[in-house]
Design brief:
Length: about 325
Amino acid sequence: MHLAVSLNIAAADGQDILDFGRISAFVRNLEAAGVDMVIISDSADAPSSSPFEATTLLAALATVAEKIGLVASASTLAHQPYNLARRFASLDIISHGRIGWNATLRQNPREAANFSRPEGFSDDDFRRRAEEYIDIVQGLWRGWDADALLFDKAGGRFHDPDKMHVLDHKGEFFAVRGPLNIARSPQNTPVLVMSASGGADRDFASRVADVILIEEQSIEAANAVSAELRRRALAAGRKPATVKVLLTVAIGSEPNVDGLRTLLGSSGCDGLHLALPADLQGPQSFTDRVLPEIRRYELAGQSRQGATLRARLGLGEGGVK
């Protein structure tokens, strides 16, 4: 079973911020407890501030944590697909293959207004644009075969042309030629994480995501949705075992660890995603109250051994086509 923990570093107006010392100490504590990955986000619906941007924070965390997977939330509104694909590919090289992208499919009006779209998109346009965006990013990540770069000075060959794949995408919202000017990821592609709250989300996530987060409120519903996602993945030509479904659980001030143990064993999911409250005390409370119980009951640290996040989660080679 797998365990992920999410941390929102955005501080609401008037709140103290999480500095790097606290964030890095928290991530190291998660790593020591055997948690598979931490998901960092830096956005909020209300006015907020943080000294960090989530994706660049991963580069710093990669230098202080050696095993835990590092995932950043990034929207399809705030970045161009080529730049975002390049950033995550670079982070994956820096971290030796431990990076993931949590692709947010929810439209944030405050964010849209900062990127020349004050009116936002219609829900249908936003969804089609997001799907095209994610397809581009994954295509760019597959632009180089693992042995494409030769660095053959004597022969004057930088790469094998047959192992470089130009994307040449021309779609409804984007035109991207590719390939990236960065080598292939150590884990072939960074891990793609997505939430699936409704039918359309579930259909798309089951076709492209490596890890799918669900928020069902009962064990019965979690079992039903998990089975549905695996059926959809199979229908899309994927091996259901290479899609991991994690049940999201909001962690309050008095977490019920016995309840977490029950969910791990009966939800039909591949593990849990523990969502911490967005406040300064959340990480410390989790460290003091929850991590000791996770260690005591061995709720984490049961994943496969491997140097990359993809290997740790048992996801196979990646690079959905």
